[in-house]
Design a protein that fits this description.
This protein is of the alpha/beta class and about 300 residues long. Helix 3 links the parallel strand 4 and strand 5. Helix 3 crosses helix 4 and helix 4 runs parallel beside helix 5. It is globular and about 55 Å long.
């Protein structure tokens, strides 16, 4: 009985086209396009996003675009609230912001949220620093994607902005810019915050209307720990305010699904890289739709 079943299964499988028996993944520096067995369109992920802070030292020039396929650079602008110490503002941000623009790359800026002060005050500080740098650019280039980095600070797992203050940050930033804000967070952290999000009135809906930039370095590996081609493990969003993600930070250097996407290494330096959920043209439209022109509106 077992032999007949196996023989039948082999014959049945062999009747399918070869393309339906395999799931090859075509890799390019700029995008990853899995070839599905069905006629439906396969997802496209553009590996074109780089995030930086003063800890990074890589040169910012057209090489990022021409050699590494980078299209959007999101640089840290602020950390917590500006209390007058050097750590409150990323010292490299103003100059790097200009360098990104001169290199012909799209601009992004992020704020690393902390429990140091209220969310609305941190939003005001963040926008003030971004606007000051943005105003130094030619008017045609004053377009910047804004992002909030919501995660624990340093090794203290309890040192992070609480959910209610995240809501205040988002509402303040969205009111003053009339633009949505990218929300960056690790996959596990989002799930850990579920109860606090639910307990904060209106926050579930507010988070869900802002695009998600999720960090997840999970990957299937071989017995030596090397990432397998096609071994990527997509972010898990069930039970969160989001039904899909817009950006996925898949590596912080030499980890994650780097058999499917470009490794996070530029020169000799390990860097964070993210994919956009869509093709390059979709990324351009996403940036245009979410970019702030550095003009204040609501108060």
């Amino acid at each position: 009985m077992v032999g007949r079943v196996v023989a039948f299964a082999v014959a049945w499988f062999a009747a399918f086209p070869v393309a339906a028996q395999h799931h090859p993944v075509q890799i390019a520096e700029r995008s990853m396009r899995p070839v599905a067995a069905t006629a439906s369109r396969a997802p496209v992920y553009s590996s074109a996003v780089l995030d930086l802070s003063s800890h990074n030292t890589i040169p910012i020039d057209s090489t990022l675009r021409k050699r590494f396929g980078i299209h959007l650079v999101i640089h840290r602008a602020t950390l917590g609230r500006d209390m007058g110490t050097p750590n409150d503002i990323d010292a490299a941000f103003p100059d790097r912001f200009q360098q990104v623009a001169r290199a012909g790359l799209r601009l992004g800026a992020y704020h690393w949220a902390t429990p140091s002060d209220s969310g609305d005050r941190q939003a005001d500080d963040f926008l003030r620093i971004v606007k000051a740098a943005c105003d130094q650019l030619p008017k045609a280039k004053r377009r910047v994607v804004l992002a909030l980095d919501w995660e624990p600070h340093g090794n203290d797992r309890d040192h992070y902005m609480r959910a209610a203050e995240v809501g205040r940050f988002l509402r303040r930033a969205m009111t003053r810019t009339e633009r949505d804000v990218l929300v960056y967070a690790y996959e596990n952290f989002i799930h850990e915050q579920r109860a606090e999000i639910i307990a904060t009135p209106g926050l579930w809906q507010l988070l869900g209307r802002n695009p998600l930039w999720i960090a997840n370095y999970k990957v299937n590996t071989d017995h030596l720990g090397n990432a397998l081609r096609g071994g990527m493990i997509l972010p898990r969003l069930a039970g969160t305010p989001w039904s899909s993600w817009s950006l996925w930070q898949y590596t912080s250097g030499d980890n994650g699904p780097i058999a499917d996407f470009p490794a996070g290494k530029i020169g000799r330096e390990l860097v964070d890289r993210s994919v956009f959920r869509g093709a390059r043209g979709d990324l351009d439209r996403f940036i245009d739709r979410h970019s702030w022109d550095c003009v204040y509106r609501g108060r």
